[in-house]
Design brief:
Keywords: Hydrolase, Protease, Thiol protease. InterPro entries: NLP_P60_dom, Papain-like_cys_pep_sf, PG_Endopeptidase_C40. Helices cover 11% and strands 13% of the residues. The chain is built from three helices and six strands. The protein has a six-stranded antiparallel β-sheet.
């Protein structure tokens, strides 16, 4: 039989190749054969001490991040002092419905005379309804308006037209002044308040509105005369 590893040229046997003996027992070691099923786990591995096999050391939790300390508060600047401007008060001259009696306008409201204040009161009633027997403040009849206008400056007049005719000094139309009362018809059936420049303020009659118009609205012949309340 040809030996494995023989040199093809010389036929010499290589040093590492030997002839295999037919006796199989010659190649076994002394003693019982090793039991493959009971081999010790880890045989042939380096010996590791017990402490090295201990449970792994738990990881140390990382320390929580520390928030930076708040900066020391700085002194806040004092708020600027507010300067309040108060508008100069002006005395009101507007007529307030429901307010009646007493001096309606102060002396320094632009109406220097008593008569001018009478006319100012009467003019403030323009547009209000004329109602028979009404004396204000929401509506008036003719003598009710003249009575209320003069009462606003502290002068008391009688309630009826006929009585108002005798409650002052009679003046001619050439001498009439603002605030004077102008009477109409021979029976003194109507009265108005002279407002200047041939105009008057009056309550024409039931169903109409208080207005300012010419003293000649009914014709010059309808004018009876004028009276200046005392």
């Amino acid at each position: 039989m040809e030996t494995y590893g023989a040199d093809p040229a010389s036929g010499a046997t290589a040093p590492y190749a030997t002839a295999f003996s037919a006796d199989l027992t010659a190649h076994s070691t002394s003693g019982p054969p090793a039991d493959g099923t009971t081999a010790t786990y880890g045989a042939g591995l380096p010996s590791i001490s017990a402490p090295a096999l201990a449970a792994p050391r738990p990881a140390v939790p990382a320390e929580p991040a520390t928030a930076p300390a708040p900066a020391a508060p700085t002194a806040a600047a004092a708020p600027a002092e507010l300067v309040t401007f108060t508008a100069r008060e002006t005395p009101s001259t507007a007529f307030s419905p429901g307010v009646y009696g007493g001096s309606w306008l102060p002396q320094d409201a632009g109406h220097s005379t008593q008569a001018e204040r009478v006319v100012a009161f009467a003019r403030a009633q323009i547009g209000r309804p004329c109602v028979w027997g009404a004396v204000g403040p929401g509506s008036y009849d003719a003598p009710g308006l003249s009575q209320a206008a003069w009462k606003a400056v502290g002068v008391t007049l009688p309630r009826t037209i006929q009585d108002q005719w005798g409650a002052g000094v009679q003046v001619s139309l050439a001498d009439v002044q603002v605030g004077d009362l102008v009477f109409f018809h021979d029976d003194l059936g109507h009265v108005g308040i002279w407002s200047g420049d041939g105009m008057m303020i009056h309550a024409p009659g039931p169903g109409a509105l208080i207005r300012e118009e010419s003293v000649f609205f009914a014709g010059q012949s309808a004018i009876k005369g004028a009276v200046r309340p005392a």
